[in-house]
């Protein structure tokens, strides 16, 4: 197309932007007139002009015509015209729906043409545009092309990726179906290009539909195994610089990261693959070219990602860590960058955290010597991730050092990280030092003739609270402090001035010697008669307070501010906002855990009023005493130790649990097996202990969920009584019929999407081991569903916390020293050993947390009383963490062996 | 219980606390010169024209400001940018976080190899004057942000096949006709 080349030359010869625009406008006018002209253009000219338009667009100019001509080209039977038409549409059309409808027909024809080249163009166009309209039109057709037996390999590749693109934009329009299993089998295809494209597709689909694609795991492992063990020339053109099929290897490793570690048989083979990849990293390179080492290391890094994802093979994790350690000192900057990044995730695994920590000096050195800020940033991230109590001081010190010379772009982030680490790990500072230091620092900063108003606010607050700590120094005497702040007063906005007035009244309390000076200021017209109501009111009230209140009252009113309440760290939130959630690692998860109870307490909304057989859950849960407790029959002494009594609280009738059952829960487990014969075997009691453990330290949450039903709980316990709200949600769009939980009857029909709730009252008659079982039956779409779940009612729910002094505690501790009263368990930590979380868990468990009782501040002690109907059992507990070994020792002492035993079991599961 | 009623709807099920790495894709690819002239852009996700131009401008600035020997990866917005300079041209890919950086670097290299093979010692001018070919080659190689075929042979075969079709299509024309003067 010479005309095009000439035009491009012209543009390149333009000496100025203006000349270029002039030339373009001339061309646009020319093209427009050609398109509008009477003479029909032949395909070649059309193609040339459309190409010119494309070029102009790519130079950054807007194009508002030519689309129709492009659509014409695209419908042509000539390949080159079609190709340019498709290119124009792909580059210019940004989901312009009207145009898309125009081209859909042409695309349909090409897809049906059985000409692989035309089909390829059409698939590319669909993928390039990738809009919802495209998905609506073609998402049904493409899977068929993909799995049809006679489709050419190249078309299969395009179809797989095209479908992937549509799935990403509109997953709802790509229904899973018979084709999925056939796609999985493409992993066995002979053509490696097909396998590569199919792996990309399967990986994305498997993330959302893991069940549907789980057979891909073993296929992916065997494919991977064949690749990593192949000689470097076996795969011919798919060998890239002596590395066999690096793209496919990486994709297979990525697919495996959608799943947990596979079954033992497959797992052995996978472990071999991963070991082979790690071994190859130690072999001498087969080529000096950087492409060879890049491709090889790309596979290695992806393998390490998988190892970290599985987080189950300590051996591999440590080997991965050592390998990354070598890269930390590699001469290639890229590898140092990636090693730092990868190690960050490795640091959060319990198996490799310690191994990562051994590289601390290298990482600190990177922070000091790397010349590229993006690498230094990775070093900061890694230091943050590897920080724990043992190295917090060193790491924070290094970060602070670095801060002085750090690039402006990352300073804020470093400050936030330092603040978080300090908040989390600082243990031995004395507040006075910090407060005095803060007062001194702001005082000095305020000396600057011009300072930011925010500094005045901070200074006003800190000096008002802690100015006394620096008042001994004649250079910062009370009067000097006051004059300094007041010199800024008139330049500040109203809110700041209001804050300063509060500082002044605090000064009256802190420094009686300057009281009259301050009163004079408050009394001045500019304050007392200030046009701003807030300022005026403060001046009047503070002046009055300073005049009439005795020093005692003043001291009480203006007492030091209490510590801020514990809540999600605002600095952490800020860091998250700044960095995106993925980069804030373990600390964040800990916070999540901490707030999970809050999430669990969302107020349920009754969906269908007629189904609500019980009072609204917002009724006073603590008013248990007011409810007539109709039945508390003594537990049968024969059957086990299950003595929790569950019964209805319908105000008049003592409703039986279920037809034919006895009126306590002890027999409900019999019901599960002997009651109505169901058409389907009852599900096993659902992972009973797992669920129970989830609820040991909390009372609300989702107890059970499958595709049909969700069971939520909300419960409250006091002394030996409890009340539990159970919410049954129908997750389907179909009615449940004959809905019968064994606790007590509810409306037998549960509409699709509706929720039924019921309340059960609970009484603990004597200490017990097993939790009661809730058995539910209902008919869904013709089949009888039968379901059994353990209700999370555990002995510790009947705990009442008891506060006691250190002396009392140890006196009682000694009294309970017979071997039968004490139960001890030594176990490995299953979660990060975080003090705050541990405290929260002990409190959630129900006992009081006794501070400053144990001579060793790292230990936790608790005390409480288990209330049963017959007796009360005093319990003492002591938890001794051993950070170094990542172990705990938990000791329970109660007057009853079985109680000590049970509580110890329950609590041990929590750490 | 659709619509979020009921107590304690479980918040997130990701047991590991981070998203599975699974499918991560390339968001876009740019070719630009040392002078900051954009030579090719390939977008794999929908974005408005204005937003695209803004991103291109911003990213070119960031990359052009970097010194040689610096790391080839950088974090930019919520993406990772992988770039490499070949003679006067920068090849620059924006990928999603979990994607493999080193392999993206080699994807760029593979594309350069393909261009080189096709044009024979490719230079910036080849790409300027035959921009549509550069797009066609890229399309044979990449689709929807994923690599379609990593084999150099099969990509080149596809391009050659297309060129053959083109020759059959086109009858020779006079120079005057070509220039639109006939």
Describe the structure.
The complex is a heterodimer of chains A (911) and B (182). Chain A has 911 residues and is of the alpha+beta class. Among the domains of chain A are: 127 residues; 106 residues, Sandwich (Immunoglobulin-like); 115 residues, TATA-Binding Protein. Helix content of chain A is 52%, strand content 12%. In chain A, the strands form four sheets. In chain A, strands 11, 12, 13, 14, 15 and 16 form a six-stranded antiparallel beta sheet that branches. In chain A, strand 5 and strand 6 form a beta hairpin. In chain A, helix 14 runs parallel beside helix 16 and helix 22 runs antiparallel to helix 23. About 11% of the residues of chain A have low confidence. Chain B has 182 residues and is of the alpha+beta class. Chain B has a five-stranded antiparallel beta sheet, sandwiched between helices. Chain B has a two-stranded antiparallel sheet with strand order 6-7. In chain B, a hairpin with a 4-residue loop joins strand 1 and strand 2. The relative contact order of chain B is 0.12. The N terminus and C terminus of chain B are likely disordered. The chains are: A alpha+beta (911), B alpha+beta (182). Chain A: Adaptor protein complex 2 (AP-2) is a heterotetramer composed of two large adaptins (alpha-type subunit AP2A1 or AP2A2 and beta-type subunit AP2B1), a medium adaptin (mu-type subunit AP2M1) and a small adaptin (sigma-type subunit AP2S1). Chain A: Pfam families: Adaptin_N, Alpha_adaptin_C, Alpha_adaptinC2.
